[in-house]
Amino acid sequence: MRRNSFLDYVKKKAINSKDFIIHKRKIFFKDNLSEDIFLNRVINFIESNVPEELFQYIDYFIIGDFNSFKEREINALYHEGVIYISNIQEDEQDLIDDIIHELAHSIEKNQKGLIYGGVSLESEFHSRRMKLYQKLLDEGFNEVRKMKDKFSNPEYDSDFDFFIYENIGYENIRKYASSIFVTPYAVTSLEEYFATGFEYYFLKSRKKLREVSPYLFSVIERIYEELVGKRREYI
Ligand SMILES: [Zn+2]
After folding, report:
1. Measured distance between the N- and C-terminal CA atoms of the chain, rounded to whole angstroms
2. Does the structure show a pLDDT above 80 at 76?
3. Does residue 123 form part of some domain?
4. Is the pLDDT of residue 4 over 90?
């Protein structure tokens, strides 16, 4: 073994054997994160901003480069108790966003009754989609007419997704949907409406979420109360 490769080996070993844990759930590495990401900062931030009880559907995390990320153009995924996260991250915030977003999906998959019970969240999402439809029509995007049925479908639909991001464009959605949805990605489907709202609640502005999506805001508060056992304290 050459000296350099031996040093690399030791370094790698040291990184891999150091335990990184978020609220008692271990982070495993399939591939290493880039060196300029300080994982301890990410862990500290999450542990002090999101209570442990909300992690009850997570067994562990795996960081790495997975084929399904490329195939599905995603960089994180929740599946059966595990959060898979890409090792390619721009900065610590990017990694925090991914973890909180997938945390939302873990709760969404396990608390459907609490989230979708009744029809209110779906009807709020539906009314937002219809507002966006009308807004785009008013702004001269006549091609939305042929997609009208798709605007009424709360499920993920790849044709709708393609239409929104390729035909209309992310920047136009950001521009015209800013008072209708908290982020352009919330337009994607009812599940993403919930997940982006959850992310926004913990990482951005609860105030804006309450203004833009009041019912979604109340659902997240209810989940918090139910899983954590107390109301969220406001500072
Ligand atoms: Zn998602």
Report:
1. 56
2. yes
3. yes
4. no
| pLDDT > 70: percent of the chain | 91
157 CA to centre of ligand 1 in angstroms: 13
Query: Does one domain contain both 28 and 100?
Result: yes
Instruction: Using a CB cutoff of 5 Å, list residues around ligand 1, an ion.
Output: 192, 195
Query: Total domain count for the chain?
Result: 2
Q: How many whole angstroms separate alpha carbon 109 and alpha carbon 102?
A: 10
Same domain, 89 and 148: no
Domain of 38, in residue numbers: 3-110
Using the mean position of ligand 1's atoms as its centre, give its distance from the Cα of residue 138 in Å. Answer: 29
Question: In Å, what is the CA distance from 211 to each residue of 1, 112, 205, 208?
Answer: 61, 24, 10, 5
Structure tokens at 98: 């991914």
* Span from the CA of 182 to the centroid of ligand 1 (angstroms): 14
